[in-house]
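Quick bug: Resolvase/invertase-type recombinase catalytic domain-containing protein output formatted oddly.
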Amino acid sequence: MFFAVLAVAGQIERNCIREKTLEGQVIAASKGNHGGRPKVIDDDMLTFAVALKDKGVPVPEIAKKLTIKAGKNAGKSPSVASLYRALAEAEATAADDGLPLRPKPARIRRPEDLLTPEEIDLRERLQSQPHPNIETRQTRPRPAPIP
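Here's what came back:
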């Protein structure tokens, strides 16, 4: 009985600590502090690195030309791996800018639905093309049955 009371008291204390922590995180986020380690490569460095990469400069040489501005490694060059990662993220972000956030839903047709003129043209073009494997397909001899 005594241990059950202590367990309940511990659980209540843990819930209070959790609520205070979440409240503190919400307040910090409203002030613009989202926690975590700051990024090594800022936007200016990334813009410079992308420009050099577009000119054909190898990434290890680009990393040597950059200097970290803040943090425990201030004054040093970022690692090549960090630069590759930042460049890949920038490429992915640039590639995603033109894409819709959600894919277009598929259109389901019934057999009695009529095709649009564009769909009829596409169907005719596809049906007039030769099958890619017809010329290269070879018939293999079937193995003899096992007696």
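Actually, after a second look the formatting is fine. Residues 43-96 form one domain. Closing.
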